[in-house]
Amino acid sequence: LPEHPYRRAAADAVAFHALLSPSPETEVIERAAWGVMQRYRLLAERFKLGFSAEEFLRAWLLVITRAFELGGARTTLVPGMDSFNHRPSREASAAVRLVDESGSGPRALVLEASRPLAPGEEVCLCYGQLSNSLLYR
């Protein structure tokens, strides 16, 4: 984790910016890291926390690297769905969709092949049009 961009930006934003300058993504990463650490500080002010800022950052990264959104739905964690690698939409071999069989709202996430798959072929999803800093999380 010491080399993770969020960790480096949180530890020393000036050095991090100098390292990746002139990339505009440094500011995106710096703001994201600052936001995570600010949340930790706010929690620490109000509650006696049993974990460090470093542990909070690790937990935050664990969630955001495995969560996704579909159709404007809230961020969702689905065990196993985080196992699929990314490919651009034209190369993706599958897609995830929400299914509402009851009429009262989404009840299931369904993974569907978007084309015929060969036995043993890797199944890949398109994560969407995201910047490198968001894909790296």
Structure description:
- The protein is of the alpha+beta class and 137 residues long.
- Helix content is 39%, strand content 12%.
- The strands form 2 sheets. Strands 1-4 form a two-stranded parallel sheet. Strands 2-3 form a two-stranded antiparallel ribbon.
- Helix 1 (5-11) crosses helix 2 (13-20).
Brief account:
The protein is α+β, with helices and mostly antiparallel strands and 137 residues long.
Cα shape: globular
Oligomer class: single chain
Q: Which structural category fits the helices and strands?
A: alpha+beta
Overall pLDDT metric: 82
Strand order of the largest sheet: 1-4
Order of helices and strands: HHHHEEEEH
Low-confidence stretches: none
Relevant terms:
137 residues, two-stranded parallel sheet, two-stranded antiparallel sheet, 5 helices
What is the secondary structure topology, with strand pairs?
Layout (H helix, E strand, L loop, with lengths): L4 H7 L1 H8 L4 H22 L6 H12 L20 E2 L7 E6 L8 E6 L10 E2 L6 H5 L1
Parallel strand pairs: 1-4
Antiparallel strand pairs: 2-3
